[in-house]
Design goal:
Elements (H helix, E strand, L loop, with lengths): L14 E8 L10 E9 L5 E10 L4 H18 L5 E5 L2 H7 L8 H4 L1
Parallel strand pairs: 1-4
Antiparallel strand pairs: 1-2, 2-3
Length: about 110
């Protein structure tokens, strides 16, 4: 089954930051290079800031998405931005963040 979802604008006065990562074992050397992208948009859907880059790491997509999300949360705070909604398409990450249980592995340390 194909599940297509579309981006939903945030409420007036809210900035939405979409975070996504990706890897392709064939072209990214078995997860030693992981790419990521972040986009900040306002309530009109206008692009405010966007960045894509890669990390030379040996980690899972979930770990990389967690690190990317954390770094952009820190950047948002240090830039004085308020009312930012962070969004991820990683169900695993969303489930962990919405849980009161901390995983007992290196992911829980992030």
């Amino acid at each position: 089954m194909l599940n297509l979802s579309s981006w939903v604008k945030p409420s007036v006065g809210i900035i939405k930051c979409n975070v996504d990562t990706g890897s392709d074992a064939g072209s990214f050397h078995k997860n030693s290079i992981l790419g990521y992208v972040t986009c900040f948009r306002n309530h009109l859907g206008q692009l405010l800031t966007c960045k894509s880059d890669f990390l030379l790491v040996s980690s899972t997509i979930l770990q990389t998405e967690s690190i990317t999300l954390l770094e952009y949360m820190k950047t948002t705070i240090s830039n004085g931005r308020q009312a930012v909604l962070f969004e991820t398409d990683s169900k695993n990450l969303a489930d962990v963040l919405n849980s009161s249980i901390t995983p007992e592995n290196e992911f829980g340390d992030l």
